[in-house]
């Protein structure tokens, strides 16, 4: 209904989910690009058509229209509409506590209100939820892509896809799961063997009289290296994107775990033909140290280690702040310690850089005792250093723990959401092919389209 107030103000009547409201037209016209703004311009602007004679003009913008009363009906959520109205009154929108951000985004899309009108306090929550849904859609798409296309392409493409699933997707089949377990065990055997090979009682003397690794250890290490090499080559051959695979962090770790063995074997084979024997032995020992990179291969098979790594990445600012606090304290207290201890004839603080070690072990409360102050002022400086060290370490720890818990819980929610989304897609497929099993991958709709179509249906049922 459009009526005039006491001062000639034009009022538009809207009914949202059974809640009737009278809205001033000049208020709605503040944002003419929105649905209510367009409706107000259509109804109240000079020369506007008579909607009672042509109700189809109004039905393009509302769900129903009463030509007798001029009232516009919308089958939407009235609670969300109250929040949308804040845009016309105060110029920004706040989401009510407990409202699903994605459902609210659907309401904003219906009322043709841009997300930029959300206040900063609510935009962050919306962006976070949107990222979660995009991650769910991405995971669902990956799962459906793994299930789809098994018979597509030539034999080489089918072989690469099958091999990639076998090497990288342990959840796709029992064979892939067994292969992942075997790879995990080989990494453990390699790490244990590397440690056992350094025990003097398990070593043997070489021709030069030096202790070297036992031949059995060498055989086990060779077998592990062959496994790692074969595994990397097969994954490289079957990788969908070769460059992305080569420069991936975990794959670089794999190369660092394999390459030292071949380089050491190459240097040992050259002997003293090109280099001196001592230089060759030193180079071989340096390359053997690089074998510790193999332990990082465990992260490929452990979701917990992956979660920890991602949480540390998200806590980069807090970790940087922690290191900055410690660096400032180390420099300050080592300089004070060096200055205060110069008066003692048996001082252990010979220089400020030499005092850095004392400051580090004191601020971290390790306290080896190899360097310690001997003057009264020096001991007072040491007491202040470890007290400040406790505070410097304790203050950023809580945000780091919160980030880990938040990321861990988020991963659990995402895994559950992906599982439910796949179950819903499978249920929809069963309903689409009644009386027959749906084809495992024979759907012409991509996973992302299925995800958002199903999500839209859910929202529609939620707000109607």
Characteristics of this structure?
mainly alpha; two-stranded antiparallel sheet; flat; 6% strand; 7 strands; 18 helices; disordered N terminus; disordered C terminus; 5-stranded mixed β-sheet; 64% helix; single chain; 464 residues
Q: What is the count of helical runs? A: 18
Distance between the termini: 23 Å
As residue ranges, the low-confidence spans are 1-6, 436-464
In this structure, how is the largest beta sheet organized?
A: 5 strands, mixed
Percent range for β-strand residues: 5-15%
Order of helices and strands: EEEHHHEEHHHHHEEHHHHHHHHHH
Radius of gyration: 34 Å
The SS-based structural class is: mainly alpha
Secondary structure tally: strands:
7
> How helix-rich are the residues, as a percent range?
55-70%
General shape = flat
* Residue-averaged pLDDT: 78
Could you characterize what this model shows?
- The chain has helices at 25-28, 35-44, 56-59, 78-90, 101-110, 120-147, 155-168, 174-196, 215-238, 242-246, 249-270, 277-289, 298-301, 303-314, 316-340, 352-363, 376-432, 447-463, and strands spanning 2-4, 10-16, 19-24, 64-66, 71-74, 204-205, 211-212.
- The radius of gyration is 34 Å and the shape is flat.
- Residues 1-6 and 436-464 have low confidence and may be disordered.
- With 464 residues, it is mainly alpha-helical.
- It is built from 18 helices and seven strands.
- The chain is 64% helix and 6% strand.
- The strands form two sheets. Strands 1, 2, 3, 4 and 5 form a five-stranded mixed beta sheet that branches. The protein has a two-stranded antiparallel ribbon with strand order 6-7.
- A hairpin with a 2-residue loop joins strand 2 (10-16) and strand 3.
